[in-house]
Specification:
Blueprint lengths: L5 E8 L3 E10 L2 E11 L3 H15 L5 E6 L5 H4 L5 H21 L3 E4 L1 H4 L5 H6 L10 H18 L12
Length: 166
Amino acid sequence: MTDTAELTVIGCDPGPTTGICALHYRAGALVRHGFAQVSHNWVEMVLDTLTDDAASTLTPGDLIIAVERFVVGPRAARSSTPAAGQITRRLIETIASTYTGRDGIPVVQRSAAEVKPWASNSRLDAAGLLSSLAGMPHARDAARQAIYCAVHDRGVPDPLSRRGGP
């Protein structure tokens, strides 16, 4: 990331209750963030608002969406309803096709198993995000996706590094 560049990363933890996180960076420093947990029926409206707002101020390529990929496994089998997996898969498909297809916004997908070990609570805390996420587990998982994407895909300094610290 260049010293003058701006970047918005939108993280999404899809499911019946979907977590959404928006991180806005300027010159590699986090300058604004927001979180939400919404019903799956509201996800497109929230993402449309966030992407339209970001697209109006950023140059193409300075906006990316990071979505938690659905993995069938023991955790998925314990979901609260049988329809939860269907809702989650449908949301991921909709996000990928809508924002990549319509607006050309890159959508990256990573499993929780890939992201969570790196995007730990200590890393979220170092970025100044953790205290704002109390009581919002889905938004916290969306923040993990967003910060992982910002550092690994867009070159934002790691919040636990000397370069990324306050």
